[in-house]
Amino acid sequence: MFRLHLVLSGLLFFSLCKGQIQFKCGSYTGDGNATQAITGVGFSPNVLIIKCAGANAPVMVTSTMTAGNSKLMTSTTNSATVTTYMSSLNSDGFTVKNTVQTNTASTTYHYLAIKSSTGCKVGSYTGTGAAKTISGIGFQPEVLFIIPDFADATYTNEGIYMSMRGKPTETVKFSLGTPGTAGINTWGADGFTTSSGLSAVAAYTYHYVALNDDNSSFDYGSYTNPGTAVDNTNITIAFQPVFVLDIDDTANNNPIARFNDESGDASMQMTANGETTNKIQAFNSSPVGFQIGTHANVQAPNSVNYYFAFGTSVLPVELVDFTAEIVDSKVELEWLTASEINSENFSVMRSSDGKNFEKIADLSAAGNSSSFIHYYYTDENPNSGYNYYKLVEKDFDGKTQESKLIGINFNLELNVITQLYPNPSSDKTVLYFNSKEGGMYNLRVIDFNGKMIYSAQLPAMVGENKFTLLTSDYSSGTYSLQLGDASGFYSEVKYVKSE
Questions:
Q1: Which one of 314, 336, 354 terminates a domain?
Q2: Which tens digits make up the pLDDT trace of 183-197?
Q3: DSSP string over 83-122
Q4: If we measure between CA atoms, which residue out of 144, 256, 248, 257 comes closest to residue 194?
Q5: Model's pTM, two decimal places?
Q6: Which of 314, 333, 366 finishes a domain?
Q7: What was the pLDDT predicted at 12?
Q8: pLDDT per residue as tens digits for the range 35-53
Q9: What are the DSSP E strand ranges found in 293-342?
Q10: From the CB of residue 251, how many other CB atoms can be counted at a distance below 10 Å?
């Protein structure tokens, strides 16, 4: 049996439901042991923020840091990332060490874990002493964290910086709770450019986390306060949140956060302070959003506050996976739902150009479910060449929602590249290609100046083949990967090397 598997990049979701960013907001009670493993996150985090419910500073971790390293968000000691607080990021969570910031016996800790995906990009760069442009992110960031990773007494308050696009005094130093402008010069369509100041000190390493507003799991916005603060004011956003970070644009720049597991009207200043009241008081389901008190951090008279929020939209179907495989000259489709509410059926749609679709099947849906359900459909007569598929889910009340597209090349008579994954990537990518006869293939990599920077001879068997290309030494940019057979026919695909 010939089986060609198309590897898809990350989780796919219905375009109208919980979408681009995978996250988990939760809490745990410290056990006071040397290390404590926190599980049940559901993925290996690329970003992690931990805040003690008591008067201790928050800790931030990214997957680009040296394994086991992290940094206090309010650090003022010109420190690099350290091994004090964290042990590791794991496949289903993380492990913390015995410190007051992350693991003291019988103490409550709240966390926000995020997985790098379409709407979240995690990376690092080396400062040059001048403005530094970071590209290849895949979107224009709305919120950006920059984490200096060096120790140098010349530069003070090297904690963590946060910038929000459109916020006039856009850069906030967590170490001081004060605004500043030494951070981001411009917000590009595919990245950002730092200033020549603290965000780009020559030869030093910086980590960054970029977030994009998708209005389904991450929302970013602002609100203007009245002349006199009004208690229990509701701020309407795209969904009911489970995490909100709120910050005033002028003098009261200590960020305020509320985690979903906090009770009553408690929230926390993201500094070495414990829980407080009269700031972010509640998360609302109707109207969807959050409620604020009268404290100046969240409602100073006539000021503007900016916020970002993570949450979930309560919509009929949560689709967490949608894949295609070529099996015995047919295309097998499979999709997985995590929950369904009032769902009637799925229509399978196919297109040869990604624009004009025809319905090829209807499958009954589960109706109501809170557990994972697999669905399968075999396209017996796929088009020659590329086939694009999408799902249209219909509710019993007649409302519909569409999935994102997936595509697969069904030309088994040619020697062709069928997939490049991950793309973009920072250190390696896997080239999948089909061979109709087997034999040797010529692979060459052409850079953005037209220069061949790599070539190799690849042995292939009949059917599916794959080759891992190491790219950690490549400069950021777009490359052409060309695969040629003995006849001189070349198949080509573009590859984007990120930071």
A1: 314
A2: 788 888 889 998 877
A3: SSSEEEEETTEEEEESSTTT--TT-EEEEEEEE-BTTEEE
A4: 144
A5: 0.63
A6: 314
A7: 34
A8: 999 999 988 999 999 999 9
A9: 304-312, 317-327, 330-340
A10: 12
